[in-house]
Amino acid sequence: GAIMGTPSVVVDRVEQTRNGTPQYAVSPSGTLLYVPGSRESEHSTLVWVRLDGTETPTNASGRPYAQPRLSPDGRRVAMALRGNASDIWEYDLARGTSKRLTFDSLSSFPVWTPDGRRLTFSSGKDGASNIYWKALDGSEPETRLVPGDRANLPLSWSPDGKKLAFVSVDPQSAQDIWLLDRDDKDKPKPFIQTPFGEGAPAFSSDGRWLAYVSNESG
């Protein structure tokens, strides 16, 4: 099959799950069934949360922010800005200014490299959601890190910047955690691969441990 013609909006404000899956179905006769997006999900506010639970708002508010990630120096936040499209923006916490970093309307899951020079992210511009990175100073072209026909989502760089932990969606085993070695980018390897769903990998500050979530316990 081939896509023909110009895309057009059928409905907007369709509810999405936490990982961005739209909640709709189409019957064989062409009837569309969907969950309307809640008004609360359209706008959000970026806030600081102290360990005692105290919240302090920033100036970033009123837009559908998702997946905020602090830069290594703590001065900027990369996040997905979602609506009918999804792109990654950078917010300067001191200046209160925003800058758009991707322009394909299909990008999400930003992850800073430990040196703060590059941003890793997932984009569906070439089909399945694959992992790319780009130099924030524009010195290097945007590069695809993990190719393939499955959705891959970057989550955490090791502190030394040598390994990237990412989630790979497999129809047979749900979600698995894989590792990409910067010295051998053509051969990512499975790290945790089970019949259960694993996700949200995060390296410890010393790089010796990897925390993650799993539905193995139900």
Query: Major sheet, described briefly?
Result: 4 strands, antiparallel
| Strand percent estimate | over 45%
Number of β-strand runs? 18
Order of helices and strands: EEEEEEEEEEEEEEEEEE
| First-to-last CA distance | 39 Å
| Average pLDDT figure | 88
Shape: globular
Helix residue percentage: under 10%
Structural class: mainly beta
Low-confidence stretches: none
Sequence of strands across the biggest β-sheet: 5-6-7-8
Helix segment tally = 0
Give the radius of gyration. 18 Å
Task: Please give a structural write-up.
With 218 residues, the protein is mainly beta. The chain has strands at residues 24-26, 32-34, 44-49, 55-63, 65-70, 76-82, 86-92, 97-100, 107-112, 118-123, 130-135, 143-146, 152-157, 163-170, 174-181, 189-192, 198-203, 210-214. It is globular and about 55 Å long. The model has no long low-confidence stretch (mean pLDDT 88).
